[in-house]
Design goal:
The chain is α/β, with parallel strands linked by helices. The protein has 4 domains: 7-219, 3-Layer(aba) Sandwich (Rossmann fold); 224-292, Alpha-Beta Plaits; 327-536, P-loop containing nucleotide triphosphate hydrolases (Rossmann fold, 3-Layer(aba) Sandwich); 550-616, Alpha-Beta Plaits (2-Layer Sandwich). It starts with 6 loop residues before the first strand and ends with a helix.
């Protein structure tokens, strides 16, 4: 690039006492880019952002932002931190006015920019609503609006969408793409690889050093590996066979990862890998499809090359007798009404022991209310429930001992040490004395906190807190486990390890209900349910749900992607159009008829399209399509 960088970082080092968190990092960020920094917990991402924002000084090295030291250009930097920086008891307008005052924005500019950004973010209808009454997605949009009100030239976003539902996340990233066209350069830290796909360039940071850098497609191409998706009637058996044979096939199998209804195998030789897989799948139904690697494959491979070990010690399970029946959780035509408002409408689902069920939905879809009924915290207005074999009193003390629960909010005590928290949960869950030591050690080993037992829990990074909270929830080997966004804020390698543990519990017979806003990890569930406006509108295995999507996902590349995006938004339903780095994604129900006309229309307006290709639907694409189609159908039914 011949442009002058907005950000120039040269040999940046940062020490906290004897701990070196950044070890000679160098990178540049250019005008109009969305630049991503990805890495595991403790990689140094937040420290780097603090120095870019002029909050911290470097130990050594050099940083310039817009040609100056960061401290001298802070009025031209917007910063959205991990924790919400909003005042919850102020309205949307009051939050914006307060930030505008701090950032020395004139009254005329404030009115113009506030009106513009509130409309862009679809918040103008709620300008007098208290920030504390907004959904997670709306809070993030407001925080972004506050960060933009001073019209910064550089916008720093530190994990901006943690806890935000998939529809709001998609809208948030489309907003970022639009903002770069106004002259704003964006640097974003994220642990989520589907978000990293939407950055123009990335660096992979690990233990203070850059492991890789480039455009998302370049990183995947440079991996020089192919990904095989394997589906079988017995994934566990196939996985065991492949792992048994991996020593002799090591030159060609670089990774095997299990998901809810498939195995992913990374290989440098498709023919040899397929031959080995066919040999090891004798007696099993098998289907194989070749796909390009994902960014998560790049991330995990690079960390493995950096000799980062996956720690997944086996939980000290105790053999339990088989339950009296196979069904752990069942809802039959369940409703929940609050006055005249129906939060849940005619929901029926069944989760058997040994299965992992993912309950997904946008904010306000009714997930939390449904879960509260399923675990006995709320009585349904109508319908039948059963939990752990009980149909009557779902709040009995005996039943409670069979349940594990990890809530969305971190539930351990910040002012207790790690060990004190775990010992407290051992007592609450009545873990037998002869098992406590083994299980405490298991939690500490799998969280990477062995030797850190006396550290205050409140001082841990968010990802480590999540892993610790999961460990506390399973200390008693529950028969039914509820996990509400268990890996929120957790990096890909730690997320992968946690899902391996979740599968281990399922294989021991535990029934598991999971909620998540990140559809990549919903692939780990054996069955999914999608909720929209209180109704369960789709159920099935991840592969089945994706395969049943109408139409196709098309990737288009234009000379001017933003112009194409803006124009296509006026021609199609807005959810069908999205920007992914240097490409535009379209969902078309009849691509053979529609695509040629769309390209001709763009070309006629001087927006040249120079490539197109079909992509497989991701689970996020499927989710957004189902939610939006159902919402449209509901609106049409109400208007009729």
């Amino acid at each position: 690039m011949t442009q002058v960088p907005v950000v120039q970082v040269l040999d940046l080092k940062k020490n906290y006492g004897e701990t070196q968190v950044l070890k000679g990092v160098s990178f540049s960020i250019y005008p109009g880019e969305i630049f991503g920094i990805v890495g595991p917990d403790g990689a140094g991402k937040t420290s780097a952002f603090h120095m870019l924002g002029g909050i911290l000084d470097a130990t050594s090295g050099d940083i310039t932002v817009l040609g100056k030291k960061p401290r001298d250009t802070r009025l031209e930097i917007g910063y959205l931190t991990q924790l919400f920086s909003l005042y919850l008891d102020l309205s949307i307008n009051e939050n914006i006015e307060y930030v505008a005052g701090l950032r020395q924005v004139s009254k005329n500019d404030l009115k113009e920019r506030r009106d513009k950004y509130l409309k862009l973010m679809d918040l103008d209808r709620f300008s007098n609503r208290l920030a504390g009454q907004l959904s997670g997605g709306m809070k993030q949009k407001l925080a972004l609006c506050c960060a933009l009100i001073a019209r910064p030239k550089l916008l720093l976003l530190d994990e901006p969408t943690t806890g935000v539902d998939p529809v709001s996340r998609r809208e948030f990233w489309d907003l970022l793409a639009s903002i770069t066209q106004e002259g704003v350069t964006v640097a974003v830290a994220t642990p989520y690889m589907d978000e990293a796909e939407r950055c123009h360039r990335l660096i992979l940071l690990h233990e203070g050093s850059i492991q890789d850098e480039g455009r998302p497609q370049e990183l995947k191409d440079n991996l020089n590996l192919k990904r095989l998706e394997l589906r079988s009637n017995d994934l566990e058996k196939l996985s065991n066979r492949l792992h048994t044979s991996i020593d002799k096939a090591q030159a060609h199998f670089t990774d095997i990862q299990e998901f809810g209804d498939r195995l992913d195998v990374l290989t440098d030789n498709l023919n040899i890998a397929q031959s080995i897989i066919q040999k090891e799948s004798v007696g099993l139904d098998l289907s194989i499809s070749a796909q390009e690697p994902t960014l998560e494959n790049v991330f995990v491979s690079k960390l493995k090359n950096a000799e980062v070990k996956e720690t997944t010690a086996r939980f000290p399970f105790v053999q339990k007798g088989a339950p009296s029946n196979s069904t752990a959780i069942k809802a039959e035509h369940v409703y929940k009404e609050f006055g005249s408002f129906a939060a849940v409408k005619d929901v029926s689902l069944q989760i058997d022991y040994g299965h992992i069920y993912g309950l997904l939905g946008a904010n306000g879809a009714g997930k939390t209310t449904t879960i509260k009924m399923l675990c006995g915290l709320l009585q349904p207005s109508k319908g039948q429930m059963s939990l752990g074999g009980e149909k009557g009193n779902l709040r009995s003390a005996l039943l409670r001992k069979k349940l594990g629960y990890m809530s969305q909010k971190f539930t351990l005590y910040d002012d207790l040490t790690i060990l004190e928290n775990l010992e407290f949960y051992c007592g609450v869950y009545c873990v037998p004395q002869d098992l406590r030591s083994k299980r405490l050690n298991w939690v500490l080993e799998n969280t990477g906190l062995l030797g850190e037992e006396n550290r205050l829990t409140g001082n841990l990074p968010g990802g480590w807190k999540q892993r610790l909270s999961f460990g506390a929830a399973v200390l008693h080997q529950p028969e039914v486990l509820f996990l509400d966004e268990p890996t929120s804020g957790v990096d890909p390698l730690a997320r992968r390890q946690m899902w391996q543990l979740i599968r281990d519990f399922a294989r021991q017979g535990t029934a598991i209900l999971v909620t998540t806003h990140f559809l990549e990890e919903a692939e780990h569930c054996s069955e999914l349910g999608f909720m929209v406006a209180g109704e369960l509108v789709a159920q099935g295995a991840p592969g089945k749900i994706k395969a049943e999507q109408p139409g196709s996902l098309i990737e288009l590349r234009f000379k001017d992607n933003q112009a194409a995006y803006n124009m296509l938004k006026t021609k199609l339903d807005s959810w069908r159009v999205s920007i992914f780095a240097d490409a535009v994604h379209l969902v078309l129900d009849h691509p053979d008829i529609e695509l040629e006309s769309i390209i001709e229309n763009c070309n006629s307006q001087g927006i040249e399209c120079f490539s197109s290709r079909r992509l497989p639907f991701s689970l996020e694409d499927a989710f957004i399509g189902i939610v939006k189609r159902q919402s449209t159908a509901n609106a049409e039914a109400s208007a009729a």
